[in-house]
Design goal:
Largest sheet: 5 strands, antiparallel
InterPro entries: ARM-like, ARM-type_fold, Armadillo
Organism: Falco tinnunculus
Protein name: Armadillo repeat containing 4
Number of helices: 57
Helix content: 55-70%
Length: 1061
C-alpha cells in the first residue's frame, strides 16, 4: 500500500505544506479498492484483524460523536471503543476532531459507521499517514526505494522466533504487499488510458474554439471566456487553494442553444461546476457532471447546436499540419497530367493507400480511422474542380466557380455554382465526411447483440479475374459521375438491373467510387435521382463494409433530413435504408444525434390502424409506418435510443399499430417492443397500455418471426407478476405450450421457452401448464438443444417443480438423468438454473435416489468451487434437500474429500445469498453428530459469529438455524458467547419476519444452556421480547421462547439461593 501511494496515487502540494490526494478518477478507484480491502478484512482474516497496530493511524475526521453506537463509550466530545489493547488503551479514540485507530477490526467498523463519508475518511487517513505500513507494523517494514529486504528479515525472524505475533505480522505484511501489487496494476491500467491535461493544452483549445465562436449562424459557440484574467507562473488561473486539487482554470461558455455553462478544467479533465454564487465574487467548485477528456468532448454532450456546427467545421478544426505540402505536391501532378483526371484519381488513391499502410504500422485501429477520414478530406480537396454542379458541397463551391468553365448541367441544385463539362468528370469523391461521431464516447447498451461488435472493415482480396458485372458497373459509373440528370437517372435504372444482392456487385459499386456519388445524389432536389439512389443504397447496405462506408461518408445525416420530405416514397426508402445501416453503435448514435428518432416516430402517426379494407391512401400510410418501425427496430438496440423513442411519444403509437392485422407492420412493431422491453419503463407501459392482449393474440399468427418476437416480449415483460397474470387471463399459456412443438426453429423455441420460464414463476400458471402437458414437452426437449434454449427449459422446469406432481412427472418422463448431466457444464446461467431444478427434484425421496445413484450430490458439491457467486448459492441451496432426503446423509457428506472444509470456508464470502445458502446447508450437515464435530474443527463457530451483525432477514433466519444446530456439540454454545454472537441474535427478535423469530428463539434456547449467555441475553432485554412470543400460535416458537425464559429464570434463582442461602 505504501508503494502504491508513493508511486501511483496522484498527489498535489501547495507551497511547502503536506501533499493532498487530487480528486481524480484514478485516486477514487484506488481509494475504493483500499476501502473494499479494509471492509472485508475482519471477515476474511479474523485473527489478523485483531492485531494491535504499532502506532495508531491518526487523522482529522468529519464524523460526529453521535454516529457511534453499540460497542463505543460516548462521553461528550470523546468517543472510545469498548475493545482495548493489552495496555488497556482503547483501540479507537476520538477526541475533538482527531481520530486514532489501532486495529483492522476497528477500521472495518469505522467504515461501516461512516457510510457515504467513507471515501472522505479514507482520503483523510491516507493523507495523514503517507506510509501506513510503518504505523501498522513498525518502521522496519516501511516502503523503501531500490531492493526491499524487509521480507527476508521477516522470514529470518520467524525461523528464529516462535512468537505467534511475528507470524501474524508476516501474514499482515503479505496481505498488504498483495494489496500494493493490486493497486499498482490497477493504476497502470488507468494511467495507460488517461490523458492528463495541462495549462498549455487547455489554453490552445480555448484559443482554437474562440476562432470558431461569435454571433454568426455558422459559429460553434456564442462566447467562451476565462473567469479570471490573472495567470500564475505555472500557467494556472485557479486560486492556489484549488490548485492543490488539480484544478487549472474556470470558463464561462455560452452555447447558442443552452444556458451559460460554468466549467472547471483540471488535470483529470473537464467537468461542470456549480456556477457563480449569488451575491459573492466566487463560484461553487463542487463537481456537477461526469469528467470529460477535453472541452470539445464536454460540449458535444451538452449542446446539439455545437455538435451540428462543429461537424461543418470538422475538417478545419482537426486538419493535419502536413496538409499544405501534400496539397501543393498533388497540384503539381495535376498540372503535369492536365485533362487526365482519371490518372489524378489513381495517384490520389495510391497516396491515400500508402498513407493508410504506414498509419496502420504506427497506430492502433482508432487512430487509423481518424487518419483515414483526413485522407478522404484531402482527396476531396484535390478533386473539387471535377465535381458536377448538382452536388451541393459547400467546401468545393468556390473552387468550382474559380474554374470558370463554360459548359453547364441542367439539373437543379440547392446551391448554385458555375458549370463544368460533363465529359471531363472522371472522379466523384465524397461530399459528406462528417466525423463527429468518431470523437465521442462510444458507450451504448451493454446488452446489444453481437453484430454491434462488427469486425473492423477490411478489404477482401480480389481475384485477378473480375466478373462481367464488375466491368458493367464500371461503364455505368462514368455516366453516373459525369452525366446530365437524364443520363444519371438512366444509369441508376440500369444499375438496379444488376443483382445488387450479390457481393461482387456491392463491392464494385464501393470500389469504383459510385457510393460517394449515390450519397451526393441524396442531397439534390431531383426526386427521381434521390429515389433511384436510395433504392440502390437500400439493397447494397445489407453488406457490412458498405454499411460502415455509408456512415463514414455522412449518408445517415442526409437520410435523416429526407424523412421530412413530403414525398412518401422517398421517406419510406430513407427509413428502410436507415434500418439497414443502423446495425452498429456509431450509426445508431448518429441517427439519434441528428434528430432521427423523433422523425422516425413521426412516421408512425398514421390513420389507417385497424382498417379492414384500407383505401390506397391508407395503405400508403401503413407502408410509411412499416418503414419507420423497421428503422426504430434497428435503432432500439441502444439504451439511449430506447429512452429517445419513449420521450418522442413512441410507446402509444406502437401500441396503436399493435392492434393492426398486417403481419408486415406487426413484425417490426413487436420487434421494437421486445428490444425495448429490457427497460422497466417500457415493461410498465406495455402492461398499462393493454399490449399484452395483442401480444398473446399474435402468438397464434401464421408467421413464425412474429410469433418469436411476441414470445420474446412476453419473456422480458413476465418478470412482473401483474404481467404474468395478464398473460394467463388473456389465454396466452396454451399457445405458448403449443409452440413447443415447433422444435426446428431454435430462435422461436428460445423465445417460447423463455416466456414459459418467466410465466411459471406464478403458481397459478404452473397449474395451467400441467393441464396443457407442458412439463412433459419440456422434458422431451432436454437433449440436443443449444445452450440458449437449455437455459430457459431448465429454468422453466425448476419453476414447475413448485408442485409435487410435476416433480413426479419429470422423474417418470426420464428428465432427471439429463439434468444431472448438465451439472458438468460450463455455462454459468445454465448451471444456476440446473442446480435449482435438481434441488427442487431432490425434495422427493424417489428422485433423490436417482440423483444419488448418478453421483449428482458430488457434482453439486463440486460447484461450490465455481467462482460465480450465483452458481455457488444455487448449488448450496440444492444441497440442502439432498442431505434432508438422502438415506444415509451423514456418511454421504463425509465421503466427499475436503467437502466440509470447502463449505465452511464459503462463510468468508461477501455475497449475502451465498452466506444464507451455506448457513442453510450447515444446518442440515450439523444434524449428524460426526459431521458437526468435523465442521467445528474447521472453525465454523467463529465464522458464524462474525456474520451475526447483519440486517438481512434471509441470512438472519438461516444463520440462527445454523447456530441452533451447532450448539449441540461440545462447548460450541460457550464459544458462541465468547465470540459475541449472542447480543446480535437478541436484536433479530425485533424483525418483522415470523420465520426469523422462530429460528432465533430456537438458537437462543440452545445458547441459554450456558450461564454466561443467559446473563448477556438478560442485559440485552431478551426477556421482554420473548414474553410476547410465548403467546404465539406457532408452537415451535412458543416452546423455544418459554424454554429460554425458563433457563434465564433458573439461573436467577440459583444466584439468589447462593447469595442469600
Amino acid at each position: 500500500m505504501g508503494a502504491a501511494l508513493a508511486r501511483a496515487a496522484q498527489w498535489t502540494a501547495a507551497g511547502s505544506g503536506p501533499g493532498t490526494l487530487e480528486i481524480t478518477p484514478l485516486n477514487e478507484s484506488l481509494l475504493n479498492q483500499i476501502i473494499k480491502f479494509a471492509e472485508g478484512f475482519s471477515t476474511r482474516h479474523p485473527q489478523e484483524a485483531a492485531f494491535v497496530f504499532r502506532e495508531p493511524l491518526e487523522w482529522k475526521t468529519q464524523l460526529n460523536c453521535s454516529v457511534f453506537g453499540e460497542g463505543y463509550d460516548v462521553n461528550g466530545a470523546t468517543v472510545q471503543s469498548e475493545a482495548k489493547g493489552k495496555d488497556g488503551q482503547p483501540l479507537l479514540l476520538l477526541t475533538a476532531s482527531t481520530l486514532r485507530v489501532q486495529s483492522f477490526d476497528q477500521l472495518c467498523c469505522l467504515l461501516q459507521i461512516a457510510m457515504e463519508k467513507k471515501l472522505k475518511e479514507a482520503q483523510a487517513c491516507l493523507e495523514a499517514n503517507r506510509d501506513p505500513i510503518v504505523k501498522i507494523l513498525g518502521p522496519e517494514y516501511g516502503t523503501v526505494e531500490g531492493e526491499d529486504m524487509s521480507m527476508l528479515h521477516l522470514l529470518d525472524k520467524v525461523k528464529k522466533d516462535d512468537d505467534p505475533e511475528t507470524e501474524v505480522k508476516m501474514k499482515i505484511f503479505l496481505l498488504l504487499r498483495q494489496l500494493d501489487l493490486q493497486l499498482l496494476n490497477s493504476s497502470l491500467k488507468h494511467i495507460s488510458q488517461d490523458v492528463r491535461l495541462n495549462p498549455a493544452a487547455i489554453d490552445n483549445e480555448v484559443n482554437l474554439l474562440k476562432n470558431f465562436s461569435g454571433k454568426g449562424e455558422g459559429t460553434v459557440l456564442e462566447s467562451l471566456e476565462y473567469t479570471s484574467d490573472y495567470m500564475f507562473s505555472n500557467g494556472c488561473r485557479a486560486p492556489p487553494w484549488r490548485q492543490v486539487h488539480g484544478e487549472i482554470c474556470y470558463l464561462v461558455i455560452k452555447p447558442h442553444d443552452t444556458d451559460p455553462l460554468y466549467i472547471t478544467c483540471s488535470t483529470a479533465g473537464v467537468f461542470l461546476n456549480g456556477g457563480q454564487l449569488k451575491g459573492k465574487d466566487d463560484i461553487d467548485y463542487e463537481r456537477k457532471s461526469d469528467v470529460y477528456k477535453d472541452i470539445v468532448t464536454f460540449l458535444r454532450e451538452r449542446s446539439p447546436r455545437f455538435l451540428e456546427n462543429m461537424a461543418k467545421q470538422e475538417y478545419r478544426f482537426f486538419k493535419e499540419p502536413t496538409h499544405e505540402n501534400n496539397y501543393q505536391r498533388m497540384e503539381i501532378v495535376e498540372s503535369k497530367v492536365s485533362g487526365q483526371s482519371q490518372d489524378l484519381y489513381n495517384i490520389t488513391e495510391k497516396n491515400v493507400c500508402e498513407k493508410m499502410k504506414s498509419s496502420a504500422a504506427r497506430r492502433r485501429s482508432m487512430d487509423k480511422k481518424k487518419l483515414e477520414m483526413s485522407m478522404k478530406w484531402r482527396s476531396m480537396g484535390l478533386a473539387a474542380s471535377h465535381r458536377p454542379k448538382y452536388f451541393s458541397d459547400k467546401a468545393t463551391k468556390k473552387d468550382i466557380e474559380e474554374e470558370g468553365r463554360s459548359s453547364t448541367v441542367s439539373l437543379k441544385t440547392k446551391k448554385k455554382a458555375s458549370g463544368i463539362s460533363s465529359g471531363s468528370v472522371k472522379i466523384q469523391p465524397a461530399s459528406r465526411c462528417k466525423t463527429s461521431g468518431r470523437f465521442e464516447d462510444t458507450s451504448e447498451s451493454s446488452s446489444e447483440p453481437e453484430e454491434d461488435e462488427e469486425q473492423p472493415v477490411h478489404h477482401q482480396e480480389r481475384s485477378t479475374d473480375l466478373p462481367s458485372e464488375y466491368w458493367g458497373i464500371q461503364k455505368l459509373a462514368k455516366y453516373l459521375k459525369g452525366g446530365n440528370p437524364t443520363a444519371t437517372v438512366i444509369a441508376l435504372c440500369l444499375m438496379r438491373d444488376f443483382n445488387l444482392a450479390q457481393e461482387t456487385c456491392q463491392l464494385a459499386i464501393k470500389d469504383l467510387g459510385c457510393l460517394e456519388v449515390l450519397i451526393n445524389l441524396l442531397d439534390t432536389e431531383e426526386i427521381k435521382c434521390q429515389i433511384g439512389s436510395l433504392k440502390i443504397l437500400k439493397e447494397i447496405s445489407q453488406n457490412i463494409l458498405i454499411r460502415h462506408a455509408i456512415a463514414d461518408l455522412g449518408g445517415l445525416q442526409i437520410m435523416v433530413k429526407i424523412l421530412d420530405s413530403p414525398d412518401k416514397d422517398l421517406k419510406c426508402l430513407a427509413a428502410e435504408t436507415i434500418a439497414n445501416v443502423a446495425r452498429f453503435k456509431l450509426a445508431r448514435r448518429t441517427v439519434r444525434q441528428h434528430g432521427g428518432i423523433k422523425r422516425l416516430v413521426g412516421l408512425l402517426e398514421g390513420i389507417s390502424v385497424g382498417s379492414t379494407s384500407p383505401t390506397p391512401y391508407q395503405a400508403n400510410d401503413t407502408e410509411i409506418a412499416r418503414c419507420g418501425a423497421l428503422a426504430l427496430w434497428s435503432c432500439s438496440k441502444s439504451t439511449k435510443n430506447k429512452e429517445a423513442i419513449r420521450k418522442a411519444g413512441g410507446i402509444p403509437l406502437l401500441a396503436r399499430w399493435l392492434k393492426c392485422s398486417h403481419a408486415s407492420i406487426l413484425t417490426p412493431v413487436v420487434g421494437t417492443l421486445q428490444e425495448c422491453a429490457s427497460e422497466p419503463s417500457y415493461r410498465l407501459a406495455i402492461r398499462t397500455e393493454g399490449m399484452i392482449e395483442n401480444l398473446v393474440k399474435n402468438l397464434s399468427s401464421e408467421h413464425e418471426e412474429l410469433q418469436m418476437h411476441c414470445a420474446s416480449a412476453i419473456f422480458k415483460c413476465a418478470e412482473d407478476k401483474e404481467t404474468r397474470d395478464l398473460v394467463r387471463q388473456h389465454g396466452g399459456l396454451q399457445p405458448l405450450s403449443v409452440l413447443l412443438g415447433n422444435s426446428e426453429n431454435k430462435q422461436l423455441l428460445a423465445a417460447v421457452t423463455g416466456a414459459i420460464w418467466k410465466c411459471a414463476i406464478s403458481g397459478e400458471n404452473v397449474s395451467k401448464f400441467r393441464e396443457y402437458k407442458t412439463v412433459e414437452a419440456l422434458v422431451g426437449l432436454l437433449t440436443d438443444q443449444p445452450e440458449e434454449v437449455l437455459v430457459n427449459i431448465v429454468g422453466a422446469l425448476g419453476e414447475c417443480c413448485q408442485e409435487p406432481i410435476n416433480r413426479s412427472i419429470i422423474r417418470k418422463c426420464g428428465g432427471i438423468p439429463p439434468l444431472v448431466k448438465y451439472l458438468t457444464g460450463t455455462d454459468q446461467a445454465l448451471l444456476v438454473n440446473v442446480t435449482k431444478a435438481v434441488g427442487a427434484c431432490a425434495t422427493e425421496p424417489e428422485n433423490m435416489m436417482i440423483i444419488d445413484r448418478l453421483d449428482g450430490v458430488r457434482l453439486l458439491w463440486s460447484l461450490l468451487k465455481n467462482p460465480n457467486p450465483d452458481v455457488q448459492a444455487s448449488a448450496a441451496w440444492a444441497i440442502c434437500p439432498c442431505i434432508e432426503n438422502a438415506k444415509d446423509a451423514g456418511e454421504m457428506v463425509r465421503s466427499f474429500v475436503g467437502g466440509l472444509e470447502l463449505i465452511v470456508n464459503l462463510l468468508k464470502s461477501n455475497n449475502k445469498e451465498v452466506l444464507a445458502s451455506v448457513c442453510a446447508a450447515i444446518t442440515n450437515i450439523a444434524k449428524d453428530e460426526e459431521n458437526l464435530a468435523v465442521i467445528t474443527d474447521h472453525g465454523v463457530v467463529p465464522l458464524l459469529s462474525k456474520l451475526a451483525n447483519t440486517n438481512n432477514d434471509k441470512l438472519r433466519r438461516h444463520l440462527a438455524e445454523a447456530i441452533s444446530h451447532c450448539c449441540k456439540w461440545g462447548s460450541n454454545r460457550v464459544t458462541f458467547g465468547e465470540t459475541k454472537a449472542v447480543a446480535p441474535l437478541v436484536r433479530y427478535l425485533k424483525s418483522n419476519d415470523p420465520s426469523v423469530h422462530r429460528a432465533t428463539a430456537q438458537a437462543l434456547y440452545e445458547l441459554s444452556e450456558d450461564p454466561n449467555n443467559c446473563i448477556t441475553m438478560h442485559e440485552n432485554g431478551v426477556v421482554k421480547l420473548l414474553l410476547a412470543m410465548v403467546g404465539s400460535t406457532d408452537e415451535t416458537l412458543q416452546e423455544a421462547a418459554a424454554g429460554c425464559i425458563a433457563n434465564i429464570r433458573r439461573l436467577a434463582l440459583a444466584t439468589e439461593k447462593a447469595k442469600y442461602g
